[in-house]
Specification:
The complex is a heterodimer of chains A (159) and B (384). Chain A has 159 residues and is mainly β. Chain A contains one helix and ten strands; from the N terminus they run αββββββββββ. Chain A is globular and about 65 Å long. In chain B, the strands form two sheets. Chain B has a nine-stranded mixed β-sheet with strand order 3-2-4-7-1-8-11-10-9. Chain B has a two-stranded antiparallel sheet with strand order 5-6.
Protein backbone atom coordinates (compact mmCIF):
# COMPACT_ATOMS: atom_id res chain seq x y z
CA UNK A 1 0.00 0.00 0.00
CA UNK A 2 1.28 3.45 -0.91
CA UNK A 3 2.12 5.68 2.04
CA UNK A 4 0.07 8.60 0.78
CA UNK A 5 1.58 11.12 3.16
CA UNK A 6 5.12 10.23 2.13
CA UNK A 7 4.97 10.71 -1.60
CA UNK A 8 8.17 11.88 -3.26
CA UNK A 9 7.75 14.29 -6.13
CA UNK A 10 10.70 12.70 -7.93
CA UNK A 11 8.85 9.38 -8.18
CA UNK A 12 6.20 10.83 -10.49
CA UNK A 13 5.97 12.44 -13.92
CA UNK A 14 4.27 15.86 -14.30
CA UNK A 15 3.22 17.65 -17.47
CA UNK A 16 3.42 21.46 -17.39
CA UNK A 17 0.85 23.56 -19.25
CA UNK A 18 3.63 25.78 -20.60
CA UNK A 19 3.58 29.50 -21.36
CA UNK A 20 0.11 29.49 -22.94
CA UNK A 21 -2.14 32.40 -22.08
CA UNK A 22 -5.58 33.50 -23.17
CA UNK A 23 -6.21 37.25 -23.28
CA UNK A 24 -9.74 38.57 -22.63
CA UNK A 25 -11.54 41.79 -23.56
CA UNK A 26 -14.22 42.68 -21.01
CA UNK A 27 -17.11 45.10 -21.57
CA UNK A 28 -17.61 47.57 -18.73
CA UNK A 29 -20.91 48.87 -20.14
CA UNK A 30 -22.18 52.46 -20.34
CA UNK A 31 -21.89 52.98 -16.57
CA UNK A 32 -18.36 51.61 -16.25
CA UNK A 33 -17.27 53.56 -19.32
CA UNK A 34 -18.57 56.84 -17.87
CA UNK A 35 -16.89 56.14 -14.50
CA UNK A 36 -13.51 55.44 -16.10
CA UNK A 37 -13.81 58.41 -18.47
CA UNK A 38 -14.36 60.77 -15.51
CA UNK A 39 -11.43 59.26 -13.64
CA UNK A 40 -9.18 59.58 -16.69
CA UNK A 41 -10.21 63.08 -17.77
CA UNK A 42 -11.19 64.84 -14.52
CA UNK A 43 -9.95 62.67 -11.61
CA UNK A 44 -13.55 62.51 -10.38
CA UNK A 45 -15.43 59.57 -8.84
CA UNK A 46 -19.03 58.98 -9.91
CA UNK A 47 -21.64 56.73 -8.34
CA UNK A 48 -25.21 55.78 -9.20
CA UNK A 49 -28.12 56.30 -6.78
CA UNK A 50 -31.01 53.83 -6.53
CA UNK A 51 -34.41 55.54 -6.95
CA UNK A 52 -35.94 53.22 -4.34
CA UNK A 53 -33.45 52.55 -1.51
CA UNK A 54 -31.33 55.68 -2.23
CA UNK A 55 -28.08 53.74 -1.85
CA UNK A 56 -25.19 55.22 -3.85
CA UNK A 57 -23.23 52.50 -5.63
CA UNK A 58 -19.53 52.84 -6.37
CA UNK A 59 -18.42 51.27 -8.65
CA UNK A 60 -21.55 52.26 -10.56
CA UNK A 61 -23.67 49.54 -12.12
CA UNK A 62 -26.96 49.73 -14.01
CA UNK A 63 -29.06 47.66 -11.58
CA UNK A 64 -29.57 47.92 -7.81
CA UNK A 65 -29.56 44.17 -7.02
CA UNK A 66 -31.67 44.19 -3.84
CA UNK A 67 -34.36 46.52 -5.34
CA UNK A 68 -33.93 45.15 -8.89
CA UNK A 69 -34.35 48.72 -10.19
CA UNK A 70 -32.52 50.46 -13.03
CA UNK A 71 -30.43 53.39 -11.78
CA UNK A 72 -29.73 56.57 -13.76
CA UNK A 73 -29.13 59.30 -11.15
CA UNK A 74 -25.40 60.06 -11.19
CA UNK A 75 -23.79 61.44 -8.02
CA UNK A 76 -20.26 62.69 -7.56
CA UNK A 77 -18.57 61.02 -4.57
CA UNK A 78 -15.17 61.34 -2.85
CA UNK A 79 -12.40 61.85 -3.70
CA UNK A 80 -11.81 61.82 0.07
CA UNK A 81 -12.93 58.81 2.04
CA UNK A 82 -12.67 56.85 5.27
CA UNK A 83 -10.77 53.58 5.67
CA UNK A 84 -13.38 50.98 6.68
CA UNK A 85 -11.19 47.84 6.72
CA UNK A 86 -7.78 46.77 5.43
CA UNK A 87 -4.96 44.26 5.45
CA UNK A 88 -1.33 44.24 4.39
CA UNK A 89 -0.54 41.42 1.96
CA UNK A 90 2.82 39.84 2.69
CA UNK A 91 2.86 36.48 0.93
CA UNK A 92 4.05 36.11 -2.68
CA UNK A 93 1.54 34.95 -5.30
CA UNK A 94 0.93 35.06 -9.03
CA UNK A 95 -1.41 37.69 -10.47
CA UNK A 96 -3.66 35.70 -12.84
CA UNK A 97 -4.19 38.85 -14.95
CA UNK A 98 -0.51 39.31 -15.74
CA UNK A 99 1.24 36.06 -14.79
CA UNK A 100 3.66 38.19 -12.72
CA UNK A 101 4.35 38.04 -9.00
CA UNK A 102 2.29 40.65 -7.11
CA UNK A 103 4.40 43.44 -5.53
CA UNK A 104 4.11 42.36 -1.89
CA UNK A 105 3.93 43.74 0.70
CA UNK A 106 1.05 46.00 -0.26
CA UNK A 107 -1.92 47.51 1.56
CA UNK A 108 -5.36 46.25 0.51
CA UNK A 109 -7.99 48.79 1.54
CA UNK A 110 -11.76 49.12 1.58
CA UNK A 111 -12.62 52.80 1.44
CA UNK A 112 -15.98 54.45 1.99
CA UNK A 113 -15.75 57.44 -0.36
CA UNK A 114 -17.62 60.48 0.95
CA UNK A 115 -21.23 60.25 -0.26
CA UNK A 116 -21.06 56.57 -1.27
CA UNK A 117 -22.95 53.67 0.34
CA UNK A 118 -20.63 50.88 -0.85
CA UNK A 119 -16.90 50.59 -0.37
CA UNK A 120 -14.26 51.08 -3.03
CA UNK A 121 -11.34 48.64 -3.03
CA UNK A 122 -7.85 49.83 -3.83
CA UNK A 123 -4.19 49.76 -2.88
CA UNK A 124 -3.22 51.53 0.32
CA UNK A 125 0.17 53.17 0.70
CA UNK A 126 1.71 51.80 3.85
CA UNK A 127 3.79 54.45 5.56
CA UNK A 128 5.82 53.06 8.50
CA UNK A 129 5.57 56.46 10.19
CA UNK A 130 1.81 56.46 9.89
CA UNK A 131 0.49 52.89 10.22
CA UNK A 132 -3.03 52.56 8.82
CA UNK A 133 -5.98 52.21 11.17
CA UNK A 134 -9.69 51.72 10.57
CA UNK A 135 -11.42 55.10 10.55
CA UNK A 136 -8.56 57.25 9.23
CA UNK A 137 -9.22 59.69 6.37
CA UNK A 138 -7.65 58.78 3.05
CA UNK A 139 -7.19 60.43 -0.35
CA UNK A 140 -6.50 59.02 -3.81
CA UNK A 141 -3.22 59.50 -5.67
CA UNK A 142 -3.72 59.44 -9.44
CA UNK A 143 -1.35 58.20 -12.13
CA UNK A 144 0.19 60.84 -14.41
CA UNK A 145 -0.64 58.99 -17.59
CA UNK A 146 -4.27 57.84 -17.22
CA UNK A 147 -5.85 55.39 -19.65
CA UNK A 148 -9.36 54.84 -18.32
CA UNK A 149 -8.87 51.90 -15.99
CA UNK A 150 -8.74 51.10 -12.29
CA UNK A 151 -4.97 51.52 -12.15
CA UNK A 152 -5.42 55.22 -13.16
CA UNK A 153 -5.64 55.54 -9.39
CA UNK A 154 -2.21 54.53 -8.11
CA UNK A 155 -3.29 54.07 -4.52
CA UNK A 156 -4.95 55.76 -1.56
CA UNK A 157 -2.93 57.24 1.28
CA UNK A 158 -3.49 58.93 4.63
CA UNK A 159 -4.93 62.42 4.06
CA UNK B 1 -41.96 16.25 -1.98
CA UNK B 2 -40.24 13.18 -0.56
CA UNK B 3 -38.22 13.03 2.62
CA UNK B 4 -34.59 12.34 1.79
CA UNK B 5 -31.46 11.14 3.59
CA UNK B 6 -27.76 10.54 3.26
CA UNK B 7 -27.21 6.77 3.20
CA UNK B 8 -23.51 6.45 2.44
CA UNK B 9 -20.37 8.59 2.29
CA UNK B 10 -16.82 8.12 1.06
CA UNK B 11 -13.73 10.26 1.40
CA UNK B 12 -10.24 9.94 -0.04
CA UNK B 13 -7.08 10.03 2.04
CA UNK B 14 -6.74 13.80 1.72
CA UNK B 15 -3.26 15.18 1.36
CA UNK B 16 -1.35 18.23 0.15
CA UNK B 17 -0.13 16.25 -2.85
CA UNK B 18 -1.80 13.13 -4.17
CA UNK B 19 0.83 12.66 -6.91
CA UNK B 20 -0.05 8.95 -6.98
CA UNK B 21 -3.39 9.53 -8.71
CA UNK B 22 -4.93 11.62 -11.48
CA UNK B 23 -8.03 13.67 -10.69
CA UNK B 24 -10.22 10.95 -12.22
CA UNK B 25 -8.64 8.30 -10.01
CA UNK B 26 -9.02 10.50 -6.95
CA UNK B 27 -12.75 10.83 -7.70
CA UNK B 28 -13.04 7.06 -8.17
CA UNK B 29 -11.44 6.47 -4.76
CA UNK B 30 -14.19 8.49 -3.03
CA UNK B 31 -17.00 7.01 -5.14
CA UNK B 32 -16.02 3.40 -4.46
CA UNK B 33 -15.77 4.13 -0.73
CA UNK B 34 -19.25 5.73 -0.72
CA UNK B 35 -20.72 2.71 -2.54
CA UNK B 36 -18.99 0.43 -0.05
CA UNK B 37 -20.34 2.47 2.88
CA UNK B 38 -23.90 2.18 1.53
CA UNK B 39 -23.40 -1.43 0.41
CA UNK B 40 -24.59 -0.50 -3.07
CA UNK B 41 -23.18 -0.95 -6.56
CA UNK B 42 -23.20 1.53 -9.43
CA UNK B 43 -26.23 -0.31 -10.87
CA UNK B 44 -28.28 1.03 -7.93
CA UNK B 45 -27.45 4.67 -8.74
CA UNK B 46 -29.93 6.72 -10.84
CA UNK B 47 -27.73 9.71 -11.58
CA UNK B 48 -24.55 11.60 -10.76
CA UNK B 49 -23.90 15.22 -9.79
CA UNK B 50 -20.26 16.29 -9.67
CA UNK B 51 -18.58 19.59 -8.92
CA UNK B 52 -15.33 21.39 -8.30
CA UNK B 53 -13.98 24.90 -8.93
CA UNK B 54 -12.90 24.38 -12.51
CA UNK B 55 -10.16 27.02 -12.65
CA UNK B 56 -8.01 25.09 -10.14
CA UNK B 57 -7.36 22.35 -12.68
CA UNK B 58 -8.28 24.30 -15.83
CA UNK B 59 -10.61 21.52 -17.00
CA UNK B 60 -14.04 22.85 -17.93
CA UNK B 61 -15.97 19.70 -18.85
CA UNK B 62 -15.28 17.91 -15.60
CA UNK B 63 -18.47 15.82 -15.67
CA UNK B 64 -17.39 14.37 -19.05
CA UNK B 65 -13.64 14.21 -18.43
CA UNK B 66 -14.08 12.25 -15.20
CA UNK B 67 -16.83 9.90 -16.45
CA UNK B 68 -14.81 6.70 -15.98
CA UNK B 69 -14.19 7.55 -12.32
CA UNK B 70 -17.42 9.33 -11.38
CA UNK B 71 -19.72 6.39 -12.11
CA UNK B 72 -21.86 8.34 -14.55
CA UNK B 73 -21.40 6.24 -17.70
CA UNK B 74 -24.80 5.95 -19.42
CA UNK B 75 -26.57 7.71 -16.56
CA UNK B 76 -27.88 11.29 -16.18
CA UNK B 77 -24.74 13.20 -15.15
CA UNK B 78 -24.49 16.93 -14.50
CA UNK B 79 -21.98 19.41 -13.11
CA UNK B 80 -22.78 21.87 -10.34
CA UNK B 81 -20.28 24.51 -9.34
CA UNK B 82 -20.59 27.66 -7.21
CA UNK B 83 -17.01 28.54 -6.24
CA UNK B 84 -16.09 27.99 -2.59
CA UNK B 85 -19.61 26.85 -1.79
CA UNK B 86 -19.46 24.13 -4.48
CA UNK B 87 -19.38 21.25 -1.98
CA UNK B 88 -22.29 22.50 0.12
CA UNK B 89 -24.25 23.42 -3.00
CA UNK B 90 -23.69 19.86 -4.21
CA UNK B 91 -25.23 18.62 -0.96
CA UNK B 92 -28.18 20.99 -1.40
CA UNK B 93 -28.54 19.82 -5.02
CA UNK B 94 -28.51 16.15 -3.94
CA UNK B 95 -31.23 16.96 -1.41
CA UNK B 96 -33.36 18.85 -3.95
CA UNK B 97 -33.09 16.20 -6.66
CA UNK B 98 -33.97 13.24 -4.43
CA UNK B 99 -36.64 15.17 -2.50
CA UNK B 100 -38.29 16.00 -5.83
CA UNK B 101 -38.80 12.29 -6.45
CA UNK B 102 -37.21 12.53 -9.89
CA UNK B 103 -34.17 10.63 -8.56
CA UNK B 104 -34.38 7.91 -5.92
CA UNK B 105 -30.69 7.21 -5.34
CA UNK B 106 -28.25 9.88 -6.36
CA UNK B 107 -24.47 9.98 -6.21
CA UNK B 108 -23.00 13.41 -5.42
CA UNK B 109 -19.27 14.09 -5.74
CA UNK B 110 -17.10 17.06 -4.83
CA UNK B 111 -13.38 17.07 -5.53
CA UNK B 112 -10.29 19.20 -6.02
CA UNK B 113 -6.67 18.69 -6.83
CA UNK B 114 -5.31 21.96 -5.50
CA UNK B 115 -1.72 20.82 -6.05
CA UNK B 116 -2.19 21.32 -9.80
CA UNK B 117 -2.21 25.14 -9.86
CA UNK B 118 -1.63 28.32 -7.90
CA UNK B 119 -4.56 28.44 -5.45
CA UNK B 120 -4.57 32.20 -4.81
CA UNK B 121 -4.30 33.03 -8.52
CA UNK B 122 -7.13 30.62 -9.36
CA UNK B 123 -9.43 31.95 -6.64
CA UNK B 124 -8.86 35.48 -7.90
CA UNK B 125 -10.35 34.49 -11.27
CA UNK B 126 -13.69 33.86 -9.51
CA UNK B 127 -14.00 37.63 -8.98
CA UNK B 128 -14.88 40.51 -11.26
CA UNK B 129 -12.06 41.14 -13.74
CA UNK B 130 -12.59 44.89 -13.96
CA UNK B 131 -13.44 45.96 -10.41
CA UNK B 132 -12.17 43.25 -8.04
CA UNK B 133 -9.02 41.62 -9.38
CA UNK B 134 -6.51 44.49 -9.33
CA UNK B 135 -6.05 44.47 -5.56
CA UNK B 136 -7.84 41.31 -4.45
CA UNK B 137 -5.47 38.49 -3.45
CA UNK B 138 -7.57 35.39 -3.11
CA UNK B 139 -9.29 34.07 -0.03
CA UNK B 140 -6.62 35.15 2.44
CA UNK B 141 -6.88 38.83 1.58
CA UNK B 142 -10.66 39.12 1.86
CA UNK B 143 -10.71 37.14 5.10
CA UNK B 144 -7.87 39.19 6.58
CA UNK B 145 -9.85 42.35 5.89
CA UNK B 146 -12.94 40.82 7.54
CA UNK B 147 -10.82 39.98 10.60
CA UNK B 148 -9.50 43.56 10.79
CA UNK B 149 -13.05 44.91 10.99
CA UNK B 150 -14.16 42.25 13.54
CA UNK B 151 -11.16 42.88 15.83
CA UNK B 152 -11.70 46.63 15.71
CA UNK B 153 -15.44 46.34 16.45
CA UNK B 154 -15.20 44.01 19.47
CA UNK B 155 -11.58 44.06 20.67
CA UNK B 156 -11.17 40.37 19.79
CA UNK B 157 -7.52 39.27 19.81
CA UNK B 158 -5.26 37.07 17.71
CA UNK B 159 -4.95 34.81 20.73
CA UNK B 160 -8.74 34.31 20.79
CA UNK B 161 -8.59 33.20 17.17
CA UNK B 162 -5.59 30.95 17.85
CA UNK B 163 -7.62 29.01 20.41
CA UNK B 164 -10.00 27.95 17.62
CA UNK B 165 -7.05 26.73 15.52
CA UNK B 166 -5.82 24.65 18.46
CA UNK B 167 -9.29 23.09 18.71
CA UNK B 168 -9.65 22.17 15.04
CA UNK B 169 -6.11 20.82 14.72
CA UNK B 170 -6.55 18.71 17.86
CA UNK B 171 -9.76 17.23 16.47
CA UNK B 172 -8.03 16.35 13.18
CA UNK B 173 -5.67 13.95 14.94
CA UNK B 174 -8.57 11.50 15.30
CA UNK B 175 -9.69 11.78 11.67
CA UNK B 176 -7.84 9.33 9.38
CA UNK B 177 -8.97 11.33 6.30
CA UNK B 178 -7.64 14.69 7.52
CA UNK B 179 -4.74 16.36 5.71
CA UNK B 180 -2.97 18.03 8.68
CA UNK B 181 -2.96 15.63 11.62
CA UNK B 182 -0.56 17.28 14.02
CA UNK B 183 -1.67 19.24 17.07
CA UNK B 184 -0.53 22.84 17.36
CA UNK B 185 -0.16 25.06 20.42
CA UNK B 186 -1.40 28.61 20.97
CA UNK B 187 2.20 29.76 20.86
CA UNK B 188 2.89 28.07 17.52
CA UNK B 189 -0.18 29.72 15.97
CA UNK B 190 0.77 33.15 17.31
CA UNK B 191 4.40 32.86 16.13
CA UNK B 192 3.66 31.50 12.65
CA UNK B 193 4.83 33.70 9.74
CA UNK B 194 2.54 36.65 8.99
CA UNK B 195 0.77 36.25 5.63
CA UNK B 196 -1.72 39.13 5.61
CA UNK B 197 -2.34 41.07 8.81
CA UNK B 198 -3.70 39.61 11.14
CA UNK B 199 -3.62 36.20 9.43
CA UNK B 200 -0.60 34.02 10.07
CA UNK B 201 0.26 30.74 8.38
CA UNK B 202 -1.60 28.56 10.90
CA UNK B 203 -4.71 30.79 10.94
CA UNK B 204 -5.62 29.80 7.39
CA UNK B 205 -6.74 26.54 5.76
CA UNK B 206 -4.28 24.42 3.77
CA UNK B 207 -4.63 23.56 0.06
CA UNK B 208 -5.48 19.91 -0.31
CA UNK B 209 -5.98 17.18 -2.90
CA UNK B 210 -9.11 15.21 -2.08
CA UNK B 211 -12.58 14.03 -3.04
CA UNK B 212 -15.78 13.25 -1.20
CA UNK B 213 -18.82 11.31 -2.42
CA UNK B 214 -22.25 11.10 -0.83
CA UNK B 215 -25.22 8.91 -1.74
CA UNK B 216 -28.64 10.46 -1.20
CA UNK B 217 -31.77 8.29 -1.17
CA UNK B 218 -35.37 9.36 -0.71
CA UNK B 219 -37.85 7.85 1.72
CA UNK B 220 -38.78 4.99 -0.62
CA UNK B 221 -35.24 3.59 -0.31
CA UNK B 222 -33.29 5.25 2.53
CA UNK B 223 -34.14 2.87 5.38
CA UNK B 224 -33.69 -0.20 3.18
CA UNK B 225 -30.14 0.92 2.40
CA UNK B 226 -29.02 2.33 5.73
CA UNK B 227 -30.12 1.27 9.24
CA UNK B 228 -29.66 4.83 10.55
CA UNK B 229 -29.87 7.27 7.65
CA UNK B 230 -29.03 10.95 8.16
CA UNK B 231 -32.25 12.71 7.17
CA UNK B 232 -31.94 16.13 5.61
CA UNK B 233 -34.29 18.38 7.58
CA UNK B 234 -33.72 21.46 5.49
CA UNK B 235 -31.27 23.53 3.47
CA UNK B 236 -30.96 27.06 2.19
CA UNK B 237 -28.43 29.67 1.10
CA UNK B 238 -27.92 33.40 0.61
CA UNK B 239 -25.89 35.39 -1.92
CA UNK B 240 -26.15 39.01 -0.81
CA UNK B 241 -23.37 40.83 -2.68
CA UNK B 242 -22.10 41.57 -6.17
CA UNK B 243 -18.67 43.20 -5.80
CA UNK B 244 -16.37 42.80 -2.81
CA UNK B 245 -16.75 46.48 -1.90
CA UNK B 246 -20.50 45.91 -1.32
CA UNK B 247 -19.77 43.70 1.70
CA UNK B 248 -21.00 44.74 5.14
CA UNK B 249 -18.31 43.37 7.42
CA UNK B 250 -20.33 42.29 10.44
CA UNK B 251 -22.19 40.06 10.94
CA UNK B 252 -21.65 37.59 8.08
CA UNK B 253 -24.98 38.62 6.56
CA UNK B 254 -25.41 35.61 4.25
CA UNK B 255 -25.03 33.12 7.11
CA UNK B 256 -27.10 35.22 9.50
CA UNK B 257 -30.03 35.33 7.04
CA UNK B 258 -29.75 31.68 5.95
CA UNK B 259 -29.61 30.42 9.55
CA UNK B 260 -32.59 32.55 10.61
CA UNK B 261 -34.66 31.17 7.73
CA UNK B 262 -33.79 27.54 8.45
CA UNK B 263 -34.18 27.80 12.25
CA UNK B 264 -37.65 29.35 11.79
CA UNK B 265 -38.63 26.64 9.30
CA UNK B 266 -37.53 23.85 11.65
CA UNK B 267 -38.78 25.50 14.86
CA UNK B 268 -35.27 25.80 16.32
CA UNK B 269 -35.24 28.55 18.95
CA UNK B 270 -31.99 27.90 20.81
CA UNK B 271 -29.50 26.40 18.35
CA UNK B 272 -26.81 26.13 21.03
CA UNK B 273 -29.01 23.69 22.96
CA UNK B 274 -31.03 22.08 20.20
CA UNK B 275 -28.24 21.18 17.76
CA UNK B 276 -25.75 18.53 18.92
CA UNK B 277 -22.89 18.99 16.46
CA UNK B 278 -21.70 21.36 13.75
CA UNK B 279 -19.31 21.03 10.84
CA UNK B 280 -18.59 24.57 9.69
CA UNK B 281 -16.85 25.81 6.58
CA UNK B 282 -14.64 28.10 8.62
CA UNK B 283 -11.59 28.58 6.39
CA UNK B 284 -9.68 30.76 8.83
CA UNK B 285 -9.39 31.12 12.58
CA UNK B 286 -11.49 34.25 13.14
CA UNK B 287 -14.45 32.67 11.30
CA UNK B 288 -14.71 30.20 14.16
CA UNK B 289 -15.51 33.17 16.41
CA UNK B 290 -17.52 35.65 14.36
CA UNK B 291 -19.49 33.23 12.16
CA UNK B 292 -20.86 31.26 15.13
CA UNK B 293 -22.33 34.60 16.22
CA UNK B 294 -24.10 34.77 12.84
CA UNK B 295 -25.35 31.23 13.57
CA UNK B 296 -26.92 32.50 16.80
CA UNK B 297 -24.62 30.54 19.14
CA UNK B 298 -23.25 33.64 20.89
CA UNK B 299 -24.06 37.33 21.20
CA UNK B 300 -22.15 39.78 18.97
CA UNK B 301 -18.48 39.80 19.99
CA UNK B 302 -18.87 36.86 22.41
CA UNK B 303 -18.00 33.94 20.11
CA UNK B 304 -14.51 33.74 21.62
CA UNK B 305 -15.94 33.11 25.08
CA UNK B 306 -17.72 29.99 23.84
CA UNK B 307 -14.49 28.75 22.27
CA UNK B 308 -12.40 29.40 25.42
CA UNK B 309 -15.04 27.70 27.60
CA UNK B 310 -14.46 24.49 25.66
CA UNK B 311 -18.13 24.20 24.76
CA UNK B 312 -17.21 23.52 21.14
CA UNK B 313 -14.39 21.04 21.86
CA UNK B 314 -14.81 17.27 21.57
CA UNK B 315 -16.85 16.28 24.64
CA UNK B 316 -18.27 19.82 24.99
CA UNK B 317 -21.96 20.73 24.86
CA UNK B 318 -21.85 21.58 21.13
CA UNK B 319 -18.75 20.10 19.48
CA UNK B 320 -17.73 21.95 16.31
CA UNK B 321 -15.52 20.52 13.56
CA UNK B 322 -14.78 17.11 15.10
CA UNK B 323 -13.30 16.25 11.69
CA UNK B 324 -10.62 18.89 12.19
CA UNK B 325 -12.55 21.29 10.00
CA UNK B 326 -11.35 23.29 7.02
CA UNK B 327 -8.26 24.45 8.94
CA UNK B 328 -7.03 20.84 8.71
CA UNK B 329 -8.30 19.78 5.26
CA UNK B 330 -9.33 21.86 2.26
CA UNK B 331 -9.81 20.26 -1.19
CA UNK B 332 -11.94 23.25 -2.15
CA UNK B 333 -14.69 21.71 -4.35
CA UNK B 334 -15.06 18.88 -1.81
CA UNK B 335 -14.77 20.99 1.34
CA UNK B 336 -18.46 21.83 1.76
CA UNK B 337 -19.48 18.25 0.94
CA UNK B 338 -17.05 16.85 3.52
CA UNK B 339 -18.92 18.92 6.13
CA UNK B 340 -22.15 17.14 5.09
CA UNK B 341 -20.42 13.74 5.05
CA UNK B 342 -19.05 14.26 8.56
CA UNK B 343 -22.49 15.25 9.93
CA UNK B 344 -24.02 12.20 8.24
CA UNK B 345 -21.44 9.77 9.59
CA UNK B 346 -21.88 11.19 13.10
CA UNK B 347 -25.65 10.61 12.89
CA UNK B 348 -25.14 7.12 11.44
CA UNK B 349 -22.71 6.29 14.27
CA UNK B 350 -19.90 5.59 11.81
CA UNK B 351 -17.46 8.35 12.77
CA UNK B 352 -14.92 6.02 14.35
CA UNK B 353 -12.58 7.54 16.92
CA UNK B 354 -14.14 10.99 16.47
CA UNK B 355 -17.71 9.75 17.14
CA UNK B 356 -19.77 12.04 19.40
CA UNK B 357 -22.45 10.71 21.74
CA UNK B 358 -26.15 10.86 20.85
CA UNK B 359 -26.13 13.10 17.77
CA UNK B 360 -29.78 13.83 16.97
CA UNK B 361 -29.36 17.08 15.03
CA UNK B 362 -26.32 18.29 13.12
CA UNK B 363 -25.63 21.39 11.03
CA UNK B 364 -23.17 22.00 8.21
CA UNK B 365 -22.28 25.15 6.28
CA UNK B 366 -20.51 26.20 3.13
CA UNK B 367 -18.72 29.48 2.41
CA UNK B 368 -17.39 31.11 -0.70
CA UNK B 369 -17.85 33.64 -3.45
CA UNK B 370 -18.51 37.16 -2.33
CA UNK B 371 -19.08 36.17 1.31
CA UNK B 372 -21.83 33.69 0.37
CA UNK B 373 -23.20 31.01 2.72
CA UNK B 374 -24.94 27.65 2.38
CA UNK B 375 -26.46 25.80 5.33
CA UNK B 376 -27.97 22.32 5.86
CA UNK B 377 -29.46 20.67 8.95
CA UNK B 378 -29.67 16.89 9.40
CA UNK B 379 -31.53 14.70 11.88
CA UNK B 380 -31.46 11.13 13.16
CA UNK B 381 -35.27 10.97 13.20
CA UNK B 382 -37.27 10.69 10.02
CA UNK B 383 -39.08 14.03 9.61
CA UNK B 384 -42.86 13.80 10.04
Amino acid sequence: MVQKNRLKRSDFIFIESGEAFQPFQYSVGMEGSRFFTEIRDHKKFLGLKCPLCRKVYVPPRKICGPCFKTMDEWVEVGPMGTLSAFTILRFPFIDPETGEKKPVPYGYAFILLDGASTQFQHFLKVDPDWPPAIGIRVKPVFAENRQGKLSDIRHFEAA
Amino acid sequence: MKRTAIVGVGQTDHNGNRFDVTGVELIQEAVSRALQDAELTLDDIDGVVIGNMDHFEGINGVELWSISGNGGILKPTIKLTTGGTTGSTLAIGGYHLTASGLFNKLLVIGWEKNSESDTTGAITTAFDPVWDRLVFAGAISGLAVEASAYMKKFGVTEKDAARAVVRDRKHAVKNPHAHLRREVTLDEVLRAPLLSDPIKALDICPRTDGACAIIFANEDYAEKICPKPAWVLGATNRHPYAYLGDVEWYPLKSLDLAAKELYAKLGIKEPLKEINLMELYTPYSFANLSWIEALGLAKPGEGAKLIWDGATDAGGSLPINLSGGVLSTNPIGATGLIRAAECAHQIMGRAGERQAEGVKKALSTGFGGCFWSDILIYGSEKPS
